Model the fold of this input.
Amino acid sequence: MSHRHIDVRYVANLARLELTADEVATFQPQLEAILGHVEALSKLDVSGIDPTAHATAVFGKMREDIPHVSLSQTAMLSNAPDQAQGQIRVPKVVTEA
Amino acid sequence: MTITTLRRQLLAWETSPAAILTKLAGEIAARDQGRTGAYLSHHLDTALAEAANTDLSLPLGGIPIAIKDNINVLGQPCTCGSKFLENFISPYDATVIRKLRAAGAIPFGRMNQDEFAMGSSTENSALGITRNPHDPTRIPGGSSGGSAAAVADHTAIAALGSDTGGSIRQPASHCGVVGLKPSYGRVSRYGLVAFASSLDQIGPLTQSVEDAALILQAIAGPDPLDSTSLDAPVPDYLRALNAGVKGLKLGIPKEYFGEGIHPGVRKNVEAAIQSLAAQGAEIVEISLPHTEHAVATYYVIAPAEASSNLSRYDGIRYGHRAANPTDILDLYKKSREQGFGPEVKRRIILGTYVLSSGYYDAYYSRAQKVRTLIRRDFENVFKSVDAILSPVAPTPARKLGAAGADPLQEYLSDIFTIAANLAGLPAISIPCGTTDFDGGKNLPLGLQIIAPHLAEAKLLQIAKAAER
Done:
């Protein structure tokens, strides 16, 4: 955990966030300070310790498979930013070969 | 006025659900709009229509409950305090809303919050400022700041909030109301907009411990729609409420009373401990040795889960969509850039970083192991004590706009509340006197009680004894 440097623009791109130059300049020292604090965890001996993913582990819980009426197409489209013919419209995804 | 008092009046025909709602709407217009700013919206007509069909024989019959703006109520906005969801209208009810309605309550009002519940001041809301009713120059706390401020301002009878690292308890403490975070899994999260799914839990903010018990009774229990909700039976939370603390062992963790606590907070919390001792509780000093690592652990795990949960905001199916994108990738990136505020962006970047392949073991995997150590601290302590007492926050409410440019300093003030989320334990904040702080007079503060997993009945029993 010796790497405190974070390439903010690179990571933001992985998270599909476009940032302004001002945001990169603001976030850079802030995130490095946070990671600097987090580095204290590297001094703890955690060998042989199991990770906790959920405070109360419940595994493989399934509900009964009972058919029921789900939300209507109208309800599901009601918040769509752009729609046509009962579907959500998006910019062209596939380019011609 | 408390739920208990209003229920008595309703059953004696001294008031009606419609009269309660109309009076609240008047108080919101007089005191909230342009002043406290706890409400993002409220819909009197819908609530009145619902009130007309309320069954007063039900436990919460005719009681309006204000709802944090990250819990879905059919047909109402659910902005999460974000520009991204500014125009979103919920297509369904969260399970807690369905359960509140089944208990006769009426959801009324959408309460301001830090954007996607990320923050502890409500200043991270993209949709407006909420002020502390005790001192309008100060924060109400957060992220459930609107819920806490409205209950303190008597513009709401009671409210629901959500707590991921203290977001119910800290604003309750800052506003001088009761705030309960149930055990992880005790209340269904279905319909709560996800921030950090292994930590999030819905709970009540109320004017009394008894009211918190009444609401928990209504919303607790298993839910087929939330696989992390627990099947454990829901006990009667009111039955032992007045049983007192005689013979109970209460632990005081020495790590929670170190430097950095304001002297007024220390004095009032110690007075509350003395009062419980005078009522027959045995007070013992305990140690939670991994406390100092709680903030670091939380600020790896919570952003990691948030970065994953918030990937759903892509501008495609709902929420903000950027205009004139060049292609689909540009649409994602611009929509998210325009829709999210700075704190949300910081946490998404941080979370993406700690989950990335080169750093996963060093940060995320290690934080999960330290989470185990923090959980074990509590398991060890609860072998010998019934509950733990501590402050909720190191200081009373700070001034609005005084956070500065270093988010880490703000994160560090979460130190006393975060561990209960990491360990999945129930915890409550109850009013614990007032103190002067940073030029402010008589600012409220809270006593935190933490109990073993699913021991909400005992938690409420101790809280009731400590309530002044």
About this structure: Chain B touches chain A through 80 residues (CB under 8 Å). The mean pLDDT of chain B is 97.
